[in-house]
Specification:
CATH class: Alpha Beta
Strand content: 25-35%
Shape: globular
Order of helices and strands: EEEHHEEEEEHHEEHHHE
Radius of gyration: 17 Å
Number of helices: 7
Distance between the termini: 5 Å
CATH architecture: 4-Layer Sandwich
Largest sheet: 6 strands, antiparallel
CATH superfamily: PPM-type phosphatase domain
Amino acid sequence: MLVFASTDIGMSRNMNQDYYYISDDEELSIFILADGMGGYNGGEIASKIAVESARKFLEENFKKVQNDRKQIVNILKSATNYANNTVYEISKENKNLEEMGTTLEICLINNNKIYISHIGDSRVYSIIDGKIQRLTMDHSYVEKLVRDGTITREEAENHPKKHVLIKALGCVPEVEPDIIEAELKKEEIIVICSDGLTNMLKDEQIKNIVINNIENPEKELIKEANIAGGYDNITAIIIRN
């Protein structure tokens, strides 16, 4: 397994509110990404707290799991809620941070399976056999309009409320993440990214860049997103199985 990861402030922001973590433990392959939001420094703090809290919970508790699917799903949910509660409590203690929140993607690879806990509009993709598939569904107002048939996918691209989330981490006392499970196939590529990438590049562009850049695909993704405008922070984690 080869892993590439990088984050960039982009062309328009004055701070990077994205934060990510990659484990170097052979027994615990976890990849976590958060894209924070809220007030001065709030998003930067929320994303770091969320990632570090989830990481700590998984490192302390995963070894109790006996490679059982149900237990893995439960521990992912617990790690997400631990991170949510930590961010939420800190936001209540500090008036300057009361509106902070974050997206959160936790990807855990175990026995050739990938388990994903997803909240917000950061995304996880699978690329295999020359095709790209989104594994997560954005928790956004515009995505809901698309699912309801109110607007088309094309209309969603430039909708004025594109950035409005209907679910985020740290904003309420309890949160229910989407849990996605899938077999991890040979030659499959997993892409975990913040919306600073997906708002600048279409899915097919992401696929082509990743496939055509064996070395440092994450840096090429960031470069192209910045060329396209770089309106937000950009983070990409690439996992080649």
